[in-house]
Design a protein that fits this description.
6-stranded mixed sheet, about 15% strand, 28 strands, about 1000 residues, rod-shaped, single chain
Length: about 1000
């Protein structure tokens, strides 16, 4: 069974070699009680360690069941110790932080025995040694004899073939020693027990065989296996076949010991629990770096969330806009800059002119193009990725939203608003230009209309607004009123909506400029929610403004009774909710005071498209429905030109009709300048002082008298006389007025008359023959639109990253179509805030890098603490090795310890960081008005804990490797 053949063991000490065993040869029976006696230093324990596989022999051979161990690897020795050997030590060698039951179970754990079987066998072994009622005690709660019984139970639990006892009674009193020896003797009936002892009396009384050693040699054997039998010569072993090798390999794999990581965690956890204070302090030190990084990430996350909200809010107000007629501002600026750089190729000895205006006009003409929005809309509708990238895609149309209110005094137009024009602040031409500017005007805060289409994203609206009364609109004929964060409404909105009397503001700007004393209602008006929710409006399609008379359609907007009836028949619009911007919202998607749904516009488009006048115009594309005349085309242009020449000779007739047919916007302005009207604009290139001086030349006492005198004089003036220079036909008043004009004013008057003459000649030539309008203008006037062909497209990205992806989608579209269908878009926000995110991230990364240094330092400290733990647990390492734990198992134990410390450090750091975010948020709220809320993302918390575990694990690799390399024999001797 067990045979030692000429075993020698040498130790190298410095430059010398010490021989502990000098050719020991012993054969053992399968079941006997063998005592090895000898003085200290004779090699007893060394022999026992070699038999137990804890130490390696220098030469010779150890045969186990007839198999040589010369070629044994570490894993083979581990398996041998675990399955064939049981150790009983003088100092018990129990793991102090494990219970009695856990100590006994440990060997079975390495054998891979299931938990239920492991417990059953451990309890049985403890009952066998009389400790069935002491299962959950710790070793330090037991007597020496009880601890030795636990050690014997641990040695027996794996049912080994050999039990090795090294001075099992050396630390016990006489009575307890007898009990232990009786127990060992009973076990020897079934097993081979080899005991090393200094007590010859116990050996003589309980052993069946006594072997004496002296100076590393066997000097006596009381009962050798067979002294008279010469060992037969062994027959040469057959070469093992592949099947034999495979079977042997399978058997070795089956017997291979391995400690699973959960067991290692349990061992380390129990050990750390015996040093709670040190473990907690170590974990806290390791958590400092985690706390620093977590706090930086929490603030960075709060800032990022705020930036994301700002992005979402901002982009809901400033979308990517694509209009039918557009120009790339960026391209214009780049082209002009390039042209300017190219032109500066002259010497600097003189001053040179720069053709900036010409370049601007030429560039504007080159960069302006017409977008095919019908085709692009179809492309967007078919793109499945766009939904996740946008808050909304809004299609706007040229159809005018005509909104009116009814009162006892009549009807008032609410939208488009004419308030600024009525005040005299803007001319009709300026109002039209501002209206055409669309969302650009809204972006610059210059919009004049108080009605705007809501973004079709209820979730975003819920984030940006609080519904303080009523609800959000659900139907096309429902709208909401938007107040500011102070529950106030601008008085411009109140006048525009008719809540205040707008007629009190008529001409107020003109009168103020004329020096009149005026007063504006400055009283603060208060409205209840119910009063505002009772507001009603009427939407009237543009075609309803026209009535058919004598085969043509006549504009009836000047007929008060007709308009009352048209408004009364209009679609009623109700205010169903009042919204207030959320305090944390940085921007708002509703630009006006009244927000309406997109389906109101689609309803209006249907109403316009199905109107009688629009159908008639579509059915007769060559005839102007307003005049009954044909539209002028290239084919009949020649007739018009010849008629113009004829009419141009009739100067007197042209002049007589000048006042009726001149362009109202330009002519009125020039006439006002000639007449000295103070409400008119100052001519370009003239200062205010020059302008006043020109008016004073007339001799009028004030500008109002000059205006009256000028207009009265011009009312009956023979314009041909002025053009021809003949003043004889003029009255004295007219002559006096002409004499009061400066050369500049007189020249301006002649220029005005010439423009009127040219315009009148063209209109007279076409009079009664061709319409001065065209089909497209008529359809635009009527508000005709096709849903599939929008006037503009507003794309609202979710954030800046989504905006870039949307731009990529537009670029992909441009790559797939011809030059004439390529899309030009306007990006109002551009890079306004994208760089902020990069800066915040960069700052965060730098701070994290600095804090990471403390994390690395704390990890090194944990490595040092782990190394200290290795030194403290050296004996435990020897115990584990003695019961069959491999070097890898030892490493796993200490790796598990670093994992526990790392996890506790990470978790502690996250918990402390979460607690610290509370005062941090309070400080931020106190010092700033920015709604930044520091918070640690769950994913970041998990990652930080994982980083802490990984760093401590890395820091513990060296100590765990040191632990694995420890000599188990030396480790067992450590106290």
């Amino acid at each position: 069974m067990l045979s030692l053949k000429d075993i020698k063991k040498d130790y190298v000490v410095g430059d010398s070699t010490v021989s502990a065993l000098k050719g020991v040869s012993i054969d053992f029976r399968e079941n006997e009680f063998v005592s090895i006696l000898g003085p200290s230093g004779c090699g007893k324990t060394t022999l026992l360690n070699i038999i137990g596989g804890l130490d390696r022999y220098t030469s010779g051979d150890l045969n186990i069941n007839g198999k040589s161990t010369k070629d044994f690897k570490d894993c083979d020795w581990d398996s041998y110790r675990n399955h064939s050997i049981g150790f009983v030590f003088q100092s018990y060698n129990l793991i102090p932080h494990q219970t009695v039951l856990s100590n006994v179970e440990l060997a079975l754990t390495l054998s891979g025995v299931s938990k239920s079987e492991r417990r059953e066998r451990a309890v049985k072994a403890l009952e066998q040694v009389g400790l069935g009622d002491q299962l959950h005690k710790k070793p330090n709660q037991m007597s020496g004899g009880q601890m030795q019984r636990v050690a014997i139970a641990r040695a027996l639990v794996n049912e080994p073939d050999i039990l090795l006892a090294d001075e099992p009674t050396g630390a016990l009193d006489t009575e307890t020693s007898v009990q232990i020896m009786e127990l060992l003797k009973s076990i020897s009936k079934d097993k081979l027990i080899i005991m090393v002892t200094h007590n010859p009396e116990l050996a003589m009384k309980y052993s069946s065989r006594i072997i004496k050693l002296l100076d590393g040699r066997v000097i006596d054997d009381s009962d050798p296996l067979d002294k008279n039998v010469v060992e037969p010569i062994k027959k040469p072993e057959k070469e093992p076949t592949k099947a034999d090798k495979k079977a042997a390999k399978k058997e070795r794999k089956k017997l291979k010991t391995s400690m699973n990581f959960l067991t290692a965690l349990s061992l380390s956890r129990n050990n750390l629990m015996t040093k709670k204070a040190r473990t907690l302090l170590t974990s806290f030190a390791g958590s400092i770096g985690i706390i620093g990084i977590a706090l930086i990430l929490s603030i960075s996350n709060g800032v990022q969330l705020y930036i994301d909200q700002v992005q979402s809010d901002t982009l809901s107000s400033y979308p990517l806009q694509i209009t039918k007629t557009t120009a790339s501002i960026g391209e214009i600026m780049n082209t002009m800059a390039k042209n300017h750089e190219d032109s500066a190729n002259h010497d600097k000895d003189k001053v040179y002119s720069q053709n900036a205006m010409g370049e601007m006009i030429n560039t504007l003409m080159e960069e302006t193009k017409v977008n095919n929005l019908e085709k692009f809309k179809k492309y967007l509708d078919d793109n499945s990725d766009l939904k996740d990238l946008t808050s909304d895609v809004q299609y706007t149309y040229a159809t005018t939203l005509n909104v009116f209110t009814e009162s006892d005094s009549g009807v008032m137009q609410v939208n488009p608003s004419t308030l600024l024009e009525d005040m005299g602040y803007m001319s009709s031409t300026q109002m039209e230009a501002m209206s055409m500017s669309g969302s650009m005007g809204g972006m610059m805060g210059m919009g004049t209309d108080v009605w705007s289409e809501m973004i079709d994203n209820e979730e975003l609206i819920d984030k940006q607004y609080d519904v303080i009364a009523g609800r959000l609109p659900e139907k096309y004929n429902e709208v909401v009123l938007v107040v500011d964060k102070n529950n106030e409404i601008n008085d411009y909105v109140l006048y525009s909506l008719g809540l205040l009397d707008p007629s009190s503001l008529n001409g107020i700007v003109r009168r103020a400029m004329a020096g009149e004393d005026i007063s504006v209602d400055s009283e603060q008006h208060v409205y209840t929610y119910d009063e505002l929710l009772d507001l009603k409006f009427k939407v009237v399609p543009t075609p309803d403004f026209y009535k058919k008379k004598d085969g043509v359609w006549e504009d009836m907007t000047g007929d008060e009774s007709y308009m009352k009836k048209a408004v009364a028949n209009g679609t009623e619009i109700s205010v169903v909710g009042i919204l207030r911007p959320d305090e944390d919202a940085s921007s708002a998607s509703i630009s006006g005071a009244i927000g309406y749904r997109h389906d109101l516009m689609t309803y209006l488009i249907d109403e316009v498209d199905n109107s009688e006048i629009v159908k008639e115009q579509i059915a007769n594309p060559d005839i102007d429905v307003f005049t009954g005349l044909k539209f002028k085309t290239d084919e009949n242009a020649a007739d018009t030109d010849s008629s113009s020449e004829t009419v141009s000779d009739s100067t007197a007739d042209t002049e007589s009709k000048a006042d009726e047919t001149a362009d109202s916007s330009d002519t009125d302005k020039k006439a006002g300048l000639v007449a000295g009207d103070s409400s008119m604009e100052i001519p370009e290139g003239m200062t205010e002082e020059q302008y006043k001086a020109l008016m004073e030349q007339s001799g009028a006492s004030d500008t109002g008298e000059l205006a009256d005198m000028g207009m009265n004089a011009m009312g009956s003036m023979d314009m041909s006389a002025i053009q021809g220079g003949d003043m004889s036909s003029l009255t004295e008043t007219q002559k006096k007025y002409i004499a009061s004009l400066s050369d500049e004013q007189l020249e301006l008057m002649k220029q005005m008359l010439k423009e009127q003459s040219d315009t009148n000649a063209d209109q007279l030539a076409n009079s009664g023959k061709y319409s001065t309008s065209n089909y497209d203008n008529n359809m635009k006037t009527l508000g005709y639109s096709v849903v599939e062909d929008p006037d503009s497209i507003n794309i609202y990205p979710v954030d800046f990253a989504s905006k870039e992806k949307i731009i990529d989608i537009i670029d992909d579209y441009n790559d797939s179509v011809g030059e004439e269908d390529k899309i030009e878009y306007t990006d109002y926000v551009g890079l306004m805030m994208s760089s902020i995110t990069s800066i915040i991230n960069a700052i965060g990364y730098v701070l994290i890098a600095f804090v990471a240094i403390s994390l690395v330092v704390s990890s090194i400290m944990i490595g040092i603490i782990t190394y200290i733990s290795v030194l403290e647990r050296t004996k435990e390492i020897g115990i584990l090795r003695s019961i069959g734990a491999s070097k890898r198992d030892i490493s796993r134990v200490f790796n598990a310890e670093t994992v526990i410390v790392g996890f506790v450090a990470g978790a502690l750091g996250i918990i402390i960081s979460y607690l610290l975010t509370i005062p941090i948020n309070m400080i931020i709220a106190h010092l700033t008005d920015v709604p930044i809320r520091a918070s640690i993302p769950v994913s970041a918390a998990v990652v930080l804990i994982a980083i802490s575990v990984c760093l401590t694990l890395i820091a513990g690799l060296f100590p765990s490797r040191v632990a694995a390399k420890k000599d188990p024999v030396i480790a067992l001797r450590t106290e």
